[in-house]
């Protein structure tokens, strides 16, 4: 070994190689050192250019109206001054790129440019919405509109992304802006401290005022069912990209959180109610949704009754998953809204930048829905012919007030894709449960302007197999039997319970 080292030390080629390596290391170190000094100098200039706050009352006055920071919190004031300058373009872009360097490498420079130019609206700035917003701001999204009417409370602190004790009592939208400006001062925030509602949708979801850019994505982080449905329906009808976060309450397993189509979401009250209402409005697919597949089990958290004294504090109905239902306290493990929020943000980042991504496909049940709709139409025509003594001409042009969304709601949400009679899943049809006691036809107009329609309601229909339907038609719809005489009392009770559940939702059609 020693002789090998001696020969290497006397070999001129080895000496030259060692010299080259050493020289390269020195040069690389010098370059890196110079670059580091440049960065430090830029940062030093940036920080030293922020004016002193010691006696600047005018700065304090303006900052109070801008972000609401207290005079005692000078760090917040400095952050807001820096944000004003950064948003005005007085900020070294190289520092921004350095802060976003890991994203830039992952998404490519082109992808990061798309993200930096994006405009995202976050509706709901609680646990899920705050973590989503924080992730978007940290990742480079430069225009964010925040919509929320609520304020930070002590109970918010177990799940909010950035709120501190000092933020309790201030609006959630203001809290997010206040804290995130200290991280990404170049981000432009548009704060809307109000509750989203359908009549204000055109204004709240409008393009960014200065550029006219439409939102690249809208985040639904709402926990109120009526507002949630209104937002998703508006986005669906106006072809605005939206992603919806479902319930994080009572969930504890982060490995069960997935991104899937609205038609596949399951296992929580908010998801189920949203999906059902949307299907009745004709929205059966096409909305990416973050939800949990975790099932409830013994020993796991459940909804808790709201104490009576809470009802004396004001209107609490908005907290309910379903309208007109008694409000309950929703147990929330603080980590779960964060996982939901970051999953939403992750999907948005990938979608905007064009990075390859997939989520679970919809159930692909469209053909089944079409077949069920045809069975309803055929059943109504047959019933009308039976009522009129077999006159086939009377059923020509008969329309039924049932849509594909109604069919999807009944088949998937109420009957779970199974016959209500035997639980079988093949050759399914929808048919009337009871024999109509009056004419099913509604006539409007005369002659060529006449419109003929059936008076069918969703609460008239039950799902069964084709064979069961033929027997049901013979004994009940064209016979003189009642369901109670034909079926087991357990089956009758199950169907009647399903019809009552349908009635609860039918008013939203």
Strand order across the biggest sheet?
3-2-1-4-5-7-6
Tally of contiguous helical segments: 18
CATH superfamily of the largest domain: NAD(P)-binding Rossmann-like Domain
Helical residues, percent: 40-55%
Question: Poorly predicted ranges (pLDDT <50, ≥5 residues)?
Answer: 53-72, 310-328
Instruction: Give the strand tally.
Output: 13
The fraction of residues in strands falls at 5-15%
Give a structural overview.
The chain has two domains: 108-353, 3-Layer(aba) Sandwich (Rossmann fold); 366-506, no CATH class. It is 46% helix and 11% strand. The protein is built from 18 helices and 13 strands. The strands form four sheets. Strands 3-2-1-4-5-7-6 form a seven-stranded mixed β-sheet, sandwiched between helices. Strands 8-9 form a two-stranded antiparallel ribbon. α6 (101-116) packs across α13 and α10 (225-237) crosses α11. The radius of gyration is 31 Å and the shape is elongated. The N and C termini lie far apart (88 Å).
Topology:
Blueprint (H helix, E strand, L loop, with lengths): L1 H9 L1 H37 L8 H11 L6 H14 L5 H7 L1 H16 L2 E5 L3 H13 L3 E5 L24 H9 L7 E5 L8 H4 L12 E4 L4 H13 L4 E4 L11 E5 L7 H12 L7 E5 L11 E2 L2 H4 L16 E2 L5 H19 L12 H22 L16 H11 L13 E5 L8 E4 L6 E4 L6 E5 H12 L5 H4 L2 H18 L3
Parallel strand pairs: 1-2, 1-4, 2-3, 4-5, 5-7
Antiparallel strand pairs: 6-7, 8-9, 10-13, 11-12
Subcellular location: Mitochondrion outer membrane
Protein name: THIF-type NAD/FAD binding fold domain-containing protein
Keywords: ATP-binding, Ligase, Membrane, Mitochondrion, Mitochondrion outer membrane, Nucleotide-binding, Transmembrane, Transmembrane helix
